[in-house]
Amino acid sequence: MNYDVAVVGAGVIGSLIARELCRYNIKVALVEKNNDMATGTSKANSAIVHAGFDAKPGTLKAKLNVEGTALMPELCKTLGVPFKPVGSLVVAFSDEEVETLGELLERGKANGVPGLEIYDAAKLREVEPFISENAKAALWAPTAGIVCPYELTIAAAENAVVNGADFIRNFEVKKIGFDGNEFTVSNGENEFKTKYIINAAGVYCDEIAALIGDTSIHTIPRKGEYMLCDKSVGHLAKHTIFQCPSKMGKGVLVTPTVDGNLLIGPSALDIEDKEDFATTAAALSGILETAKKSVPSLTTREVITSFAGLRAHCTRDDFIIEPSEKNSRFINVAGIESPGLSSAPAIAESVRDIILKSASFEEKADFNPVREEPVRFRHMTNEERKALIEKNPAYGQIICRCETITEGEILDAIHAPAGARDVDGVKRRTRAGMGRCQGGFCGSKVVEILARELGVEINEITKFGGNSKILYERTK
Amino acid sequence: MLNYDIVVIGGGPAGMAAALKAKECGVDSILILERAETLGGILEQCIHTGFGLHYFGEELSGPEYADRFIQLVDKQKIEYKTDTMALEITQDNVVYAINKKDGLLEIQAKAVILAMGCRERPRGALNIAGTRASGVMSAGTAQKYVNIDGYMPGKKVVILGSGDIGLIMARRMTLEGAEVKCVCELMPYSSGLTRNIVQCLDDFNIPLYLSCTVIDIHGKERVEGVTIADVDENRRPIPGSERFIECDTLLLSVGLIPENELTRAVGIDLDPVTSGAVVDEYRETSHKGVFACGNVLHVHDLVDYVTLESQTAGEGAARYVLGKTEEAEYVTTKGVNGVRYIVPQKVNIKNDGDVKLYFRVGQVYKNAKTVVKYNGEEIISKKRPRLAPGEMESVIIKNDMLKGFAADGVIEISVEV
Q1: Distance between CA B266 and CA B285 in Å, rounded?
Q2: Do B134 and A439 touch (CB under 8 A)?
Q3: In chain B, is it the N or the C terminus that has fewer CB atoms within a 10 Å radius of its CB?
Q4: Closest by CA position to B393, among listed B365, B368, B346, B361
């Protein structure tokens, strides 16, 4: 197969870049080493759209954050992805931290962040009733929001595929050759050719760049652990609540999610293993203790799951979005740590602009930017539900009780463009298994439906591809 | 809009027993809503025996126990809808439910009986550290894979939690050829029935580690092992006691939670200890005409007790529908000093029969007494050679005693050593 552009890595960055490039009459490949998109950094992060006052003025982070955040609401609407403009608060607990708020305000103004305001303690408690009594003041940022990062990634990748891109899963790029005109990209078994490569491989950006001899990138996986709480305590935070930042990041936050849960985290620890998604007792108890400083009524009682994600921290300490010095048709999109999700829409546009400097791609007349929002039975009125089941009875069968997910929605997830192939893929697309029982009841039904729809035995279905199988052989 | 006198939500042992009793009491218009493909509830996957010893005086398997009731439901021509999920109960007892055939159902009920059962506590609720590898599941999920689907979910197994499902699955997995390395129990005693410890662990030489828990899960794609550690009296892991156990599967049997999402949405008062509704002796909740029974009310150790309790609820719902309820003056019940909870939480002193109180203790006691006091005065005392959290206790308040109580009085049950 021959492509014009191959994007390596189907995270939120790669998927949005692939979609952006599908506006042109070119052949785009979105290449992913795992069984699905959104399986690395994009599935496990704070899910925050930052206002943009954190980054140092003049950095790419500062510029693209503010631009990306401005693009996000409309993009989410176009792609049928939940986004909520809840706004954020940075809370100060000491006089020293109150001063920090002032600095953040000034920095935000320099970065062009609209609407920033300092709230005193009374005003803070009025807008955030469960905040600690020790809170002295807060920086209010109305443009901040929350988004579902994996849904955004999936929607972008689906829309890219609908507009002609190939989604190539389970293709781990191991070798890249260049003949002066085209790259040959190989996983050791299969290969394809492409004129451009976008390196959006997250924590693996350094290793992918090294395949063309570019050793300028040093990625350090920075692990962040989170706890997700039941919807019954979703009311404890109305906005994203930050504490004052440190040099390791923006600290532990407490935030509502677009689905109405409460998210606490992250910790921050630099590690070596790029596949180390294990949570640790120390980090989990640490984030809870720190989070309680903001919202003292938090307990572990309502925790329904915990998880870890890896930030693709780079030693340069800013986004790296530029052609490689080794090959101008190999574009690095590296070091995309926070505010990477917020910046993603703007990063996609800036990568497009970099390519268009050297390539003359023709705009596609029939590009369709819209990805219809999937059926979400749980959000429908009874009248809508009635009409829906009449049209398609599969929506009359509840599979996931906790989240009210129907068989019809699971079928949609499997048969979507670049659809789900494993249990976690169904979960990310539909929320089946994300509720308080965490798949205890619906897990086996999802396995059954996947096997039936994909035409395989149920013991071939995996949790997330590879050797993550769920069942062994038949019983005696 | 459909109209029924009684809508029963859940067609497991609780729902069926309640419906049958209501029918017996003279209510003909009854509809059972069941979310699974068949009636029977979780019993359908419990193919081991031990069911029915109290109620039928014989030992049955789960499906056999359920079948006796399914046959009666058919014989009594009680209507039911399977593959049907109740989504909402309104303040006026309208039940919304869906299935593939009928689409959205809107059912006006005079009385509603909640019999939705319970679910297992997941890993997340325990916050066990480690990877997200495949191979961590609740014991009940594994039971379904083995007994219903006919597939093995693992070969080398560690079980966390010595609840009855965990114990049963230790034996079941062993019989199917898996190697069960151990059962770890956080508490210094098992919460399972003694007979299950003997028949499921001892008979197969499976070690039970008390005051021990899983603190880490290893393996990137499939589980490759767990780290277990002993815990101190505050249930905190003891440094230095950690050991690695190679396994491909971790089964969790760490507690059951009544499924009260519908109940909560109606605004019914819940008991924070049982996680079920606050009920009177007929199992009527704080919402008029809504009754609750079985594991949705409180987690039972024996299905026989579920059946008995549900018959009480069925009778209560029938009395309500038929307008036979007497005026009510309540005393409340309260578990103190070792008694974690009592069901029912309140009793109508105008009731013209005896009332049985069910209760559970918080730890293991030997040679103790259970003492019932009314407004501080001892009225019943029973010697008990052994009391354990896994085994439900009961005491009967005779009607003549009840007649001597006054409104707003308090019945306390305690353990005295």
Answers
A1: 11
A2: no
A3: N
A4: B361
pLDDT in tens, B338-348: 999 999 999 99
Q: Could you tell me the sign of the dihedral formed by the alpha carbons of B56, B60, B62, B63, in that order?
A: negative
Kindly state the DSSP code that residue A361 receives in the 8-state scheme. P
**Looking at chain B, how many residues does it have?**
417
Task: Compute the distance between CA of residue A394 and CA of residue A430 in angstroms, rounded to an integer.
Answer: 14
Can A50 be counted among the known catalytic residues? yes
Same domain, B130 and B226: yes
Per-position DSSP letters for B148-191, written without gaps between them: II-B-S-SEEEEE--SHHHHHHHHHHHHTT-EEEEEEESSSS-S
Average pLDDT, chain B: 96
Please state the domain count of chain B: 3
β-sheet bridge partners, residue B138: B252
* Residue B67 contacts A, CB cutoff 8 Å: no
Query: Kind of pairing, strands A137-141 and A117-120?
Result: antiparallel
Where does B221-354 have alpha helices with state H?
261-266, 303-321
The 10s digit of each residue's pLDDT in B100-158 is 999 999 999 999 999 999 999 888 878 899 999 999 999 999 999 999 999 999 999 99
Residues B250 and B151 occupy one common structural domain: yes
Q: What secondary structure letter does DSSP report for A470?
A: S
- Residue B126 and residue B237 share a domain: yes
Q: CA A142 to CA A116: how far, in whole Å?
A: 7
Question: Is some CB atom of chain A closer than 8 A to the CB atom of B247?
Answer: no
Using alpha carbons, list the distances in angstroms from residue A49 to A148, A258, A301, A315: 10, 12, 28, 23
> Contact A185/A173 with Cβ under 8 angstroms?
yes
Domain boundary, last residue among B238, B254, B270:
B254
For residues A463 and B131, the answer to whether their CB atoms sit within 8 Å is: no
Reduced to 3 states (helix: H, G, I; strand: E, B; else coil), residue A369 is coil
Task: Say whether both B52 and B25 belong to one domain.
Answer: yes
Phi/psi of residue A447, nearest 5 degrees: -60, -45
Residues B350 and B292 in one domain: no
Of A50, A218, A313, A379, which one is the catalytic site residue? A50
Instruction: Note whether B216 and B284 are same-domain residues.
Output: no
ipTM of the complex: 0.93
CATH number at residue B6: 3.50.50.60
What is the pTM (predicted TM-score) of this model?
0.94
Q: Which residue has the tokens 């048709």?
A: A329
Sign of CA dihedral B127, B128, B133, B138: negative
Residue showing tokens 């019945």:
B411
Tens of pLDDT along A253-282?
Answer: 999 999 999 999 999 999 999 999 999 999
Query: What is the 3-state secondary structure of A77-146?
Result: HHHCCCEECCCEEEEECCHHHHHHHHHHHHHHHHHCCCCCEEEEHHHHHHHCCCCCCCCCEEEEECCCEE
- Rounded-to-integer distance, Cα B365 and Cα B385, Å: 8
In this complex, do A278 and B176 lie within 8 Å of one another by their Cβ atoms? no
For B81-112, b/e burial (b = at least 16 CB within 10 A) is bbbbbbbebeeebbbbbbbbeebbbebebbbb
B230 with B317, same domain? no
- Percentages helix, strand, coil for chain A, rounded to the nearest 5? 35, 25, 40
- Cβ contact (<8 Å) for A304 and B104? no
- Which tokens in the block code for residue B146? 């083995």
Backbone φ/ψ region at B340: left (φ over 0), alpha (ψ -120 to 50), beta = alpha
Give which of A40, A95, A32 is closest to A340, Cα–Cα.
A40
C-alpha distance from A396 to closest chain B C-alpha (Å): 4
Interface of B with A in 199-218 (CB under 8 A): 215-218
Residue B373: give the domain boundaries: 329-417
| Contact between residue B364 and residue B386 where contact means Cβ atoms under 8 Å apart | yes
